[in-house]
Each structure stands twice: as structure tokens, then as C-alpha cells.
Write a structure and sequence with these properties.
Radius of gyration: 50 Å
Number of strands: 23
Largest sheet: 5 strands, mixed
Strand content: 15-25%
CATH topology of the largest domain: Heat Shock Protein 90
CATH superfamily of the largest domain: Histidine kinase-like ATPase, C-terminal domain
CATH class of the largest domain: Alpha Beta
Number of helices: 24
Distance between the termini: 94 Å
Shape: elongated
Strand order of the largest sheet: 8-10-11-13-12
Length: 718
């Protein structure tokens, strides 16, 4: 690559300095007579001599000028005795040796033409003579620099010609490639159109005979058939349904590829749509003995703008895959609201399973058409491999993105987010007002997630809720609650549990007439509730299928609504001589409640508010510290097990005055589900003042507040 036009010129000038150009240093004093000067010229054969005065250069004289002064046809001039200072050249060039070559060249070659061929005096910083430089030498240097510049310009010009030729060649190649791409694009579009047209025609042609097959099978099943014939007909029916599903998938995929599939968004009752979809697939999960869970969180709106047909299609596909690829464990549908920094609030739909999972190397191509996790010919699970590809494209058309997280042999989580827009939140307060205050419920199921989901939905109705993991524990809690005078109003009871199942629990309750007010809601799987007469004998008031939907819970609570809580009925049955224990009155206290469980939050808040307290909620220890820095409180009810920072760590931070906390000695009441020997001592050692084991009751919370007030009074009196 040639250098820029001025590069060589600049390099040559920078490498050269005036000292290298000095030709000679001959000088003569300014007082020297002209005859002596003439002899000097003759001896040195110079054309110019420097003239000095007190060691410093003051000018320049030339041989020609001296000869003109001294020589004439009449002999010596009368001025021959005059000193040389009177006969110097006018305005000689005197240049410091430190001057830059560029500046010297510009200075010399910009002089008038009559002074052009004079030599130059070179002096140092103290004006002492360094020597003389002939103008001819400077002319040679300038010529070399010009030659280098011309050479560089020629090289640059040649390089530009080569680059221009290459660019023209690349332009020709690009135009040719663009032409080929345009032809390939047109061919691809035409191929897609023809393929879509072919698939649509084939779908129509296949559906016509399939309609006859399905219709005749349904008619045949209505006739009198033997058990063997009915089995054959059912098998054909299932095969026909599977074939229709494959045809639908292929047709949808062809429409999407052709860009002919359009979304039709409308205001949709999203909770109802989700419940209907999971109920359709409940039987498939029940047949494999899977725990099927529906978890719709409280922040999910009732109405949502979406294409209901396509949303149902995506959810059905994800659920069908989850059930198909899960042999044991659970399948969970979770609907909740998330916030993305760039897009705002989104409705997230998750389908989790504990199935076979997907290998890491196959995740990247999972959503490609005709691709399956197991693509071998002898694979265990069937299918076209179009379902996930179609689902992702449908979600994309709905302005979302379908994603997957999976661990092989552990399970998978498919989820997609859709823009929430402006939707009104669910009005739970109006639902709470439809039920009497003070109701209590017990949820019994051997699966912890099922218990948690049902209990959260019950708490949203303003009902205090507790849970039990077995039939044995259920009976213990029921009897303990009865002995405390706080009997339950509702019992949500799983039918299938180890050791003691739901029916056995119902039998034991039926044997105790004092438990008559207890309303039992039996949780069954599809196909297990056929013998309703047998179940009703056991005192079951209502049965609902799993997965338990929020609307099922709400309808059960409303339909079995008592006029008064069982606790009030229990109090009215007590003998007149027995006076119920009076709950003491308290001054209005500012209480900080630290609790991460939504259900336990509802219970504790309602109890504390009933006791006249102002309640402030923190969901973990870090939020406790933030609230402690911002305001002051009378006491803290501290849950011990919380995410991010538990109760023990939070108590320790408070006692140490962590980052500006002022109330280091605030009264802290531990609230924990641990009730083993030594748990109370552990809380006290951590710095807490009192201890309550869960489940908490109105009476026990009141006693704890009395303890606090007594302790505060003792401190004030001291």
C-alpha cells in the first residue's frame, strides 16, 4: 500500500536538518579592507564570504561585488581602503541552525528573484556563525522532495485504480448474487404457495372420507355391541381422532408458513378459558395417576385480550406433551403476572412437568418443524414433531415468545409471556363480603403444592386456612380445634392418600355427631367419583375433580356457606355456667408482621386487626430491615423460615443496629411451624423475646400481646 501523498515529503524533511547542509564556514571581519577580502576570495575560491562583527555574523559579501568595487580600467578604485562592512549584500538571509527545513525552504524560495541565488548564513542561538549553505544545495533538496512526492502520487493513483477495479468486480458479483437470491426467493415463495395449496387440498380430500369413518363409528357405538366389538370401535375412534389431529397440525403449519394465519384478539375470560382447557386433559393425567395442579395466582385478571382459540391451542399442546412425556410425579399449570423492564407487565403461562426432560444438546433445535427429543424410528412416544413449532409461531404472532427450560430425567418447564395491557384486577373484596366473617377451613392432601394452591385460594375469600399432609394429621387437627373451641367450617379432603384415605376420614367424622357442622369437599380424580351414593353416605357435601380450579373452590365455599361460623355455634352449645374467656382489649399497637406465606399472612393480619392492631407486612427479613429503618413499631411477629433472610438473621441484624436501625431493643415474638423441644430456646438465644408455634389462634396471639404490654410496663416503671 502506497503512503499518503505527503508522507515521503514529510519523512525526507524530518530526516534532514540545516547542520547537514552547511557547506563552509569562511568568514571575515567587518573592518577588513576590500583588497584583503579580494585576496581571501582568491585563496578560497568562494563566491560568498560571511562578515562578522565581534564574533557574530552581520552579513554576506560576494566575490562579484568586491571585484566591481576594486577593479576598473583606470586601476584601483578610490574606495579601495573602505572596510568590507560598507560593501555587504543588502538583506542577506540569516537563519538559525535550529530552524525547520520546511520553514527555511518556504523562506528562501519566497524571496524576490533578484536575491534568489544568494547563499544563506547559518547561526546558532547566540548568533555565532555556524557556516554557509548554498542555495543550489537547497534547490537540490527541494527537487528530491518534489520527486518523492510525485512518486508517491503516482503510486497512490495506481493503488486507487486497482481498488476501483476490485470494487467494480465485487459490484458485478454482488449484482449477480442479488439476482440469484431474488430468483431463489421467488422460487421459495412459489414452492411454499404450492405446498400450502397441496396440503390444503390433501386435508380436504382426507377429511371427506374421515368424516364418514368418524360418523359411522359414532353411530355404530350407539348400537348393541359386544364388549369386544365396543373395544374395537373405541380403538378405531381414538385412531381417527389422532389422524385428525395430525391433519390439523400439518394444515396449521402450512398456513403459518404461507403467512395466511391471522390472529383475532378479543376480550376473553382468561381464567375460565384456562380452567376449561385443563379440565379437558384431566382424564389423560388421571389415567397415568399423575398429580395435575392448576395454580392461577391472585394477580391474574378475569378478562384478557387474546385470540382464545390459539391460546387454547398452545396451552393444550404444551399440556398434552407434558402428560405424554411424564410417567410419574406431577404436571403443573401456573398462571401469573411478571414484569419485564422493556415491555411492562406480562401474563406468563407455565407448564411444568416431572417427566423425562430434554437433553441440553437438543434444546436449541426443539422448536424446529418435524423435530422431536427422540427422533429415532423405535422411539417410545409418537407424534409429528410439529406441535412445538406451531405453538412457538402462534405465540410469536400473539406478540410473545415460547421458551423452554429442561433437565434430562428431572423435568421441563415451557412458558410464554403475552402483553397484559390495561386490565382490571380481580375484586376479591366483593367475594369476601358474600361469606360470614370468622370462617375456618382445613385442607388435607399428601401433595404439598396442592395444599398450598387450595389454601391460597381459600384465604383470598377471607377464610382462615390450615393444612395437613395426611388423614391421621387431619383427625388430630380437627379434634384439637374442637377442644379449643375453634372448630373448622370447611374440610377440603383428598380422596387418595396413603395410610388413611379420604373415605376413612369421612367415616371417622361421621361417627362423631359433634362434628356435624363440618362441611366436607372431597377432591377426586376424573373417573373416581362415579359411585356418588357411596361417597354421600360418608357425609361428603360436595366433590370436585382435580386439578382443582379457583372457580370450583369459590363455588364450593358459596354453595356450602353457613349462616354462622361453627365457632359461634359451638359457643352457644356450652353450658350456661361456663363463661367463655374474654379476650383482653389493647391499645392501638403498630405491629410489624414478617411472613412469606400468603395464607399465613391472611390469618395473622385478620387476627391482629381484630385485636385492634395496625399491621405492616414484610415478606422476608430484608424487608423487615427496610421497614425498621423507615419507621418505628411497637413489636414484631417474626416468622423464622423466610427466603433471602430468615427470622434468626433478621433478629440478629436488628439487635446489632444494622445500617441505621434505631429500635435495637424492639419486642420480637417468634412465629414458627417448628414445635419440637428446644425450638423455643433456639428463638430466645437468637434474641427474640417470646415464642408462638403455628398454627396461631386469636387467644394465643392475644396472650403474646399481653406479655409484651406487661414487659413494656415493667420497663417504664423501672
Amino acid at each position: 500500500m502506497a503512503k499518503p501523498q505527503s508522507a515521503a515529503h514529510r519523512d525526507l524533511a524530518e530526516e534532514t536538518d540545516l547542520l547537514r547542509l552547511v557547506g563552509h564556514r569562511n568568514a571575515i571581519a567587518g573592518t577588513t579592507p576590500l583588497e584583503i577580502v579580494q585576496k581571501e576570495f582568491t585563496a578560497h575560491r568562494h563566491h560568498y564570504l560571511a562578515v562578522e562583527e565581534n564574533g557574530k555574523a552581520i552579513g554576506l559579501c560576494s566575490r562579484t561585488a568586491i571585484n566591481e568595487k576594486l577593479g576598473s580600467r583606470f586601476g584601483f578604485s578610490i574606495y579601495s581602503k573602505r572596510p568590507v562592512r560598507d560593501h555587504m549584500l543588502a538583506h542577506p538571509e540569516i537563519v538559525k541552525v535550529s530552524s525547520k527545513i520546511h520553514d527555511v525552504l518556504n523562506r528562501v524560495f519566497s524571496r524576490p528573484s533578484e536575491r534568489f541565488y544568494e547563499d544563506i548564513l547559518i547561526i546558532d542561538e547566540s548568533k555565532q556563525l555556524v557556516g554557509l549553505v548554498a542555495v543550489d544545495t537547497l534547490i537540490q533538496l527541494q527537487n528530491r522532495m518534489l520527486a518523492e512526492k510525485i512518486k508517491q502520487l503516482e503510486e497512490n493513483e495506481n493503488a486507487l485504480r486497482e481498488q476501483k477495479a476490485k470494487l467494480e468486480s465485487l459490484t458485478d458479483q454482488l449484482e449477480a448474487a442479488n439476482g440469484e437470491l431474488a430468483r431463489a426467493r421467488d422460487d421459495a415463495l412459489e414452492g411454499t404457495r404450492l405446498k400450502s395449496e397441496f396440503l390444503a387440498n390433501m386435508s380436504h380430500e382426507i377429511r371427506t372420507p374421515m368424516n364418514g369413518i368418524v360418523g359411522m363409528i359414532s353411530l355404530m357405538q350407539e348400537t348393541e355391541l359386544s364388549e369386544e366389538q365396543l373395544h374395537y370401535a373405541s380403538t378405531v375412534q381414538k385412531s381417527a381422532d389422532s389422524l385428525l389431529n395430525i391433519i390439523n397440525d400439518i394444515l396449521d403449519f402450512s398456513k403459518i408458513e404461507a403467512g395466511k394465519l391471522e390472529m383475532s384478539a378479543e376480550e376473553t375470560p382468561i381464567r375460565e378459558l384456562i380452567e376449561e382447557t385443563v379440565q379437558i386433559l384431566a382424564e389423560a393425567a388421571s389415567n397415568k395417576h399423575l398429580e395435575f395442579i392448576l395454580d392461577i395466582e391472585a394477580d391474574v385478571p378475569d378478562w384478557f385480550s387474546v385470540d382464545p382459540l390459539r391460546y387454547r391451542q398452545v396451552l393444550t399442546n404444551l399440556l398434552g406433551n407434558a402428560i405424554k412425556f411424564t410417567e410419574e410425579g406431577e404436571v403443573t399449570v401456573k398462571i401469573h403476572v411478571v414484569r419485564e423492564p422493556s415491555r411492562g407487565h406480562m401474563l406468563r403461562t407455565e407448564v411444568r412437568d416431572s417427566g423425562i426432560g430434554i437433553p441440553r444438546e437438543q434444546l436449541a433445535r426443539l422448536f424446529q418443524a418435524f423435530i422431536q427429543g427422540d427422533g429415532s424410528t423405535n422411539r417410545k412416544y409418537g407424534g409429528t414433531g410439529l406441535g412445538l413449532a406451531i405453538s412457538r409461531k402462534l405465540v410469536t404472532l400473539m406478540d410473545g415468545k415460547l421458551q423452554c427450560e429442561s433437565i434430562e430425567n428431572v423435568g421441563s418447564n415451557f412458558y410464554f409471556d403475552l402483553p397484559l395491557g390495561k386490565t382490571a384486577p380481580v375484586d376479591f373484596q366483593s367475594q369476601i363480603k358474600q361469606l360470614p366473617a370468622g370462617l375456618r377451613a382445613l385442607v388435607v392432601d399428601d401433595h404439598p403444592q396442592v395444599r398450598d394452591v387450595i389454601c391460597r385460594n381459600i384465604a383470598l375469600m377471607g377464610i382462615m386456612c390450615q393444612t395437613a399432609e395426611s388423614g391421621v394429621k387431619c383427625m388430630q387437627l380437627i379434634r384439637q380445634a374442637y377442644q379449643r373451641g375453634e372448630p373448622y367450617d370447611y374440610l377440603f379432603l383428598d380422596l387418595n392418600m396413603p395410610e388413611m384415605d379420604g373415605l376413612e376420614v369421612c367415616r371417622q367424622i361421621a361417627l362423631d355427631p359433634e362434628l356435624d357442622p363440618l362441611r366436607i369437599v372431597l377432591l377426586t380424580e376424573v373417573g373416581q367419583g362415579s359411585n356418588r351414593k357411596h361417597i354421600n353416605v360418608q357425609g361428603v357435601n360436595k366433590s370436585i375433580y382435580k386439578p382443582v380450579c379457583p372457580s370450583d373452590i369459590t363455588n364450593a365455599l358459596r354453595s356450602l356457606k353457613p349462616d354462622k361460623p361453627a365457632a359461634e355455634l359451638f359457643t352457644s352449645k356450652l353450658p350456661p355456667a361456663e363463661t367463655p374467656e374474654v379476650i383482653p382489649e389493647f391499645d392501638t399497637l403498630r405491629v410489624l408482621l414478617a411472613e412469606d406465606s400468603v395464607t399465613n399472612q391472611e390469618v395473622a393480619i385478620r387476627i391482629l386487626e381484630k385485636l385492634g392492631c395496625e399491621v405492616y407486612l414484610a415478606e422476608d427479613g430484608l424487608q423487615v430491615l427496610d421497614l425498621m429503618r423507615a419507621a418505628e413499631y411497637d413489636c414484631i411477629f417474626m416468622d423464622c423460615q423466610m427466603p433471602r433472610m430468615d427470622g434468626y438473621e433478621a433478629t440478629n441484624a436488628i439487635r446489632e443496629g444494622f445500617h441505621g436501625i434505631r429500635q435495637k431493643d424492639i419486642y420480637i415474638i417468634a412465629m414458627t411451624a417448628h414445635a419440637m423441644q428446644g425450638d423455643k430456646q433456639k428463638c430466645l438465644r437468637a434474641g427474640m423475646n417470646d415464642y408462638l408455634s403455628k398454627p396461631v389462634t386469636l387467644k394465643r396471639v392475644a396472650d403474646a400481646l399481653c406479655q409484651y404490654q406487661n414487659a413494656r410496663s415493667a420497663i417504664e416503671e423501672a
